[in-house]
Amino acid sequence: MKNEKIIAPSILNADFANLSQQIRLVELGGADWIHCDIMDGKFVPNLTFGPVVVQAVKRTTKLPIDVHLMIENPDSLIENFIESGANRVTVHQEEVIHLNRTLTRIRELGAKAGVAINPSTPTSTLREIIEITDLILVMSVNPGFGAQKFIPGSIRKISELNEMREKFSADFLIEVDGGVGTGNIKQLSDAGCNAFVIGSSIFSKDNMTAATVELKNIIS
User: Is residue 186 part of a domain?
Assistant: First the structure.
């Protein structure tokens, strides 16, 4: 699992009037997952979409749907998102009080369980749950909006998680989200990252298929 490399285009940056077509374009480029950023305007200063859009994505693609809950009280909506088609559900360490319980419940409901940390949250806070998580998401920007500048310290955090994974023989994937593109994806991959959430570096391009292919080729 630690050698797996995954491109996960984030539809936060897609044109929702042409969402089905744009998902098809990234599929043609070899995208591995479709990433859905769920924001409630409370935990982060932006409001996006809910389970209905995840259902629409599920009808559009056979790719796994990677749902990132940037919301208050995510426990109240986990089941809704899994029923809507989420294959992976990631919650924030900063928001969930009983993280062990929440991750276990996600798995019991049939999805892969992930935990995200904001740029100011140290990786050491995750030591007690690495055996029960399928994915750890490093936020490389402060969450809330797309097209932000990458925070360089995120590379060190990925390296720390990779070392933790090796030391404890854990098998979680390491994911990164925020400011990822052709200029830094190789360095992130070399540090131990497996899954790359990419928004504007794909969806802002005239040829989204070619942009996806280029990013995949860099980490292949």
Answer: yes
Catalytic residue among 32, 37, 66, 134: 37
Q: What is the CATH number of the domain that holds 13?
A: 3.20.20.70
Whether 212 is covered by a domain: the verdict is yes
The yes-or-no answer on residue 171 being catalytic is no
> For this structure, is 37 an active site residue?
yes
pTM beyond cutoff 0.85: yes
Q: For residue 85, how many other CB atoms are within 10 A of its CB?
A: 20
Quote the CA–CA distance of 63 and 98 in Å, as a whole number: 30
Residue-by-residue pLDDT tens, the chain, 220 positions:
568 999 999 999 999 999 999 999 999 999 999 999 999 988 888 889 999 999 999 999 999 999 999 999 999 999 999 999 999 999 999 999 999 999 999 999 999 999 999 999 999 999 999 999 999 999 999 876 656 689 999 999 999 999 999 999 999 999 999 999 999 999 999 999 999 999 999 999 999 999 999 999 999 8
Query: Number of structural domains, the chain?
Result: 1
Q: What is the domain extent for residue 56?
A: 6-219
